[in-house]
Specification:
single chain; about 50 residues; 2 strands; about 35% helix
Length: about 50
């Protein structure tokens, strides 16, 4: 797969998209009423966490 080089505002937009995507995955686990999240690991049993 070829590497894609982004500069200036394009790079900022791509970085912001990645940050929002990560925040959407972590957000439900935060706070006192945070839900559990299951992390599938290649070796061993899945890990259940709620630390955000």
């Amino acid at each position: 797969m070829p590497k894609i080089m982004l500069h200036n505002s394009e790079a900022r937009r791509a970085l912001a998209r990645g940050v929002f995507r990560l925040a959407a995955a972590v957000e439900p686990t935060l706070g006192p009423k945070g839900m559990n999240a299951m992390i599938d690991r290649p070796i061993g049993t899945p890990m259940v966490t709620r630390d955000g």
